[in-house]
Amino acid sequence: MSSISNSSWCTAENSSNESIKFIDGVSGKSSNLKVFYTVDSEIKAQNANNDAQNCQILLRTNERIEQKSKSDSRTVCFGKTLQFVQEIKEFYTWKVPWIIILLSVVQVVVYFVACNVSIARLTFNPHLKTNIWRYFTYHSVHFNLTHLMLNVVLQVLIALPLETTEGHLRVLIVYFSGVVFGAIGSLLFNPTQSIVGSSGGVFSLLFGHMSQCTLNWRIISYRSFRMTAILLLFFSDLLFSVLKHIYWSSVEPKISFSAHICGSVAGYFTGLLVFKKEKRRRSPTEY
């Protein structure tokens, strides 16, 4: 009887121990779950905080990059502006075309001030061909006011871009080459005709543009346009001269074809000799 009771008591004790262990196990698992969830929530919170910090860092980085890019773009723009200004200074330094202005002033003064005796001494007279100064001075004498104004306006318009780019001395040489060879051509082909006016110099300047285009054909701006304008002006003058010779041959002043043509040829070849050849392309704004 006692053995039965002892065994039953042992059994009850074991079962109570097992139930205690079971309860302890369940409470341990629940506590582990709580710890796990707590750690997990902390990790998630930390990750969220890190993500927020990373977003802020990324935004700041983007702002810095944008600011730097704007600064770089301003620097590049400023650098290009300085480069452009340097090119302007190098190629387009303004030179007052005082040579052609001075020549025009002399022509106007001679027309309004000079007396008949002075005009006779300045005119190119083929019967006085040994007077060397006449080959140079006849350009300052004009037949009437229309003749004067036409030549002055044309020579200023044509010479201005040449003198500002090629310099005073080169343009002066080209101009007087046309004047001198215009007189020589008139002497050869019209040995009895006296000549006045600066048409030989005007046409030498006109074809000086052509020689400048020839020297710098690959780098000069608007070369085709300039060549077309030169040829149109030359052939329009030639056509007018032919029509005047046919229909108004008795009207003064008569046009000297030889002076125009010889002045043009002299201006072209003299320009090839004295004008400079550029090494860099000019800006389209120059011409």
Your description of this structure?
The chain has 287 residues and is mainly α. The protein folds into two domains: 1-91; 96-274, Rhomboid-like fold. Helices cover 77% and strands 0% of the residues. It has nine helices and no strands. It has helices at residues 2-91, 98-113, 116-122, 134-137, 145-166, 168-189, 199-215, 223-247, 257-274. Helix 5 crosses helix 6. The longest helix is centred in the N-terminal third of the chain and has 90 residues, at 2-91. The protein starts with a helix and ends in a 13-residue tail after the last helix. Mean pLDDT is 77; it is low at 1-16, 18-29 and 283-287.
Number of domains: 2
What fold name stands as the CATH topology of the largest domain? Answer: Rhomboid-like fold
Percent of residues in helices: over 70%
- What oligomeric state do these chains adopt? single chain
| Total strands | 0
By CATH reckoning, the class of the largest domain would read Mainly Alpha
Instruction: Determine the N-to-C terminus distance.
Output: 134 Å
Report the sheet with the most strands, covering strand number, pairing sense and barrel closure: none
Helix-and-strand structural type: mainly alpha
Q: List unreliable stretches of 5+ residues.
A: 1-16, 18-29, 283-287
Features:
287 residues
Describe what is shown at a glance.
The chain has 287 residues and is an all-alpha fold. It has nine helices and no strands. 77% of the residues lie in helices and 0% in strands.
What topology does this entry show?
Blueprint: H1 2-91, H2 98-113, H3 116-122, H4 134-137, H5 145-166, H6 168-189, H7 199-215, H8 223-247, H9 257-274
